[in-house]
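Annotators were shown the component list below and the corresponding predicted structure, then asked to write short factual statements about the assembly.
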Amino acid sequence: MTVQNVATAPQAGVPKTSVWRRIWQQDGPGYLFLLPWFIGFFGLTLGPMISSLYLSFTHFDLLTAPRWAGVDNYVRMFTNDPKFAASMRVTMFFVIFSVPLKLAFALGVAMLLNRGMKGLPLYRALFYLPSLLGASVAIAILWRQIFAGDGLVNKFLSIFGIVGPSWISNPNYSLWTLIVLAIWQFGSPMIIFLAGLRQIPQDMYEAASLDGASKWRQFWKITLPLLTPVVFFNAIIQTIEAFKSFTPAFIISGGTGNPINSTLFYTLYLYQEAFGFFRMGYASALAWVLLALVAVFTAFSFLTSKYWVHYDD
Amino acid sequence: MTFRMDRRQFLMGTSALMALGAAGIGPAWAQAANMRIIFWGGQSRADRTYGVTDLFDEATGSRIDGEFLAWNDYWPKLATQTAGGNAPDIIQMDYRFIVEYAKRNAIAPLDEFVGGALQLDGFDEDQLEGGKVDGQLFGISLGANTVATLVNTVAFEEAGIEPPTSDWTYDDIMEKGQAFAEANIRNGMKMMTDSSGTEPMLDNWLRQKGLQLYTAEGQLGFGAEEMTEWFTIWHNLREAGVIVSPDNQALDTGPLETTGLVTGRAALMPSNSNQLVGYQALVPDKLDMIGYPRISAGSGGGHYRKPSMFFSIAQSSPNKEAAAQFLNFFISDPEAAKILGVERGIPCLPETREVVAPTLDEANQIALNFVANLGDLLGPLPPPPPAAAGEIDISLLRTLSQEVAFGARTPEDAGPYFVNEATAILARAS
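Structure shown to annotators:
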């Protein structure tokens, strides 16, 4: 703010100021303050991105110079790579199930917490905790212990005489254990929902209950419509997160994506191609396809948003 | 003072370097005969290795900085450093990668140093051969090992069953295994792990049939029929409840702690001779070692003495002569030998073996005896596997063995599928 004010200070009296000088005086200090970010963005993000775009059109094994391959990598991906298809299926399944379930769960907890209970900050912090821990190696290892054949879950089930399978190493259930892990990290959308819920004017609920609307009806007709901007925001953020998810699958499957590729997340396959088999060109191509996919998903969300997101104006 | 790092120290070290940089003091990197060494392994291997570099530094006044990583992290790191023209002078190398590195001129031929800096008189012939690519010597074997089955002797005692010896056969797995399962010890422990996805075991089985996993030309050395037979053997064992169930087997993701032998799900597990020491540290019961099963009584030749790992010298190294001297010191100096033991396998020079033998504990002694007395189990060294062998193992064989185990594919279907896919992977890589 101050920068702006200084920069727009009257200069009319000063003649013959060159355009560059004027720009510098106006915006220079701002850019100066942005410099660390610029260096990071151009040096550490944009540069590598451009070179990975180039590499995606080559065969590159790190040891010898990249060989130009045209669109070979992309062609192989879409025509002749069963593991690409498998990993895409796993990731889509994960995104489609984990994101809505996580958001629903987060919203439910947020509504419980929004009843003006005592000790709210404490509960809020407690429920947020898994989000801080969730992507960590330690939790993934813990998850292995909980869902293994002789793990906590099966010990609990055995009380009722049920013999459970080894959840994490059975291809029918392994991906679901990862989805449960994702849902368990509902903290950050919950906090955002909680803030959103507080924005909803209480008098609307009062008016609705005077008219005899049930709680259920109030939720569908007041809470949810007014919360759609927050739902929209959370959905986009969580979808991108879900596409990028890597650590839990990597740790729980030991980097293999097994059993039978049932936890072979797209990112895990990308990692295997790059650092397991040293196909940097192909891995770069995979990365760009993922970027495109996420962009399409996000664009689609934005395009449809005008039909279901109600901004308060 | 030498400079060494693991990952944790790396973080601290980086901040220290930045602090130094800020203060305008750079560490003195460029001195004569300064060298770097890189290897994979655990803390125990690192302690032994640095013990020897310290000795060498003292004796010659040079300075060797070291870095070690876990196997999975090692290859990306080495490839990245090599790509950046910044490879360490001395590189621990594996039989699986040596051809790739040699053919791409990333490591240097050592023939010019043999007889000079490198004294290899009496060096085991098969170990020397193992380090050659197209007739040139690219790696010095640091020890010999071989595949072996580890035996939990206490579990067999509890089950009241005589543990198998190196004369056992695949039929014995079924017979003994059924008796073992009936004994029902330790909450349903099985006699053996499901090893249908264990590449060295498939290799061993093929060799006993007079075939091989890969030909010298880097092609598949067997057909769909053998692969179907292999999967059928394990399918029958699985059906009979003799080996570990599929979902328990899938908990084994590689690290020692996740394997059936350590988690107590099986009393027999295929492994390598030099790993007995590592496993014995994790299993409270006394372990022993026998060969892989024979396809029929009296059949042999499946095993071979494999160079467990090599030291190679980077093509980019300016100190090749000094590095060769270090290699020579590493394999032949008596004090160095005492520090190293047989942790990298059985030493390849007879004099070194004599120095080491009396210093060994029981587990090491078992490993030494096993490798030295393979008898008719021993066959010739196969050619180095093609570059894509790792991919076929990891992304095809292991996954396919799980598909058969979980019933997603029949052995009859899996056999031809394996051959087709493996051939495609080999074709793509070449």
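Statements collected:
1. Residues 79-307 of chain A form a domain with the MetI-like fold fold (CATH 1.10.3720.10).
2. Chain A has one domain: 79-307.
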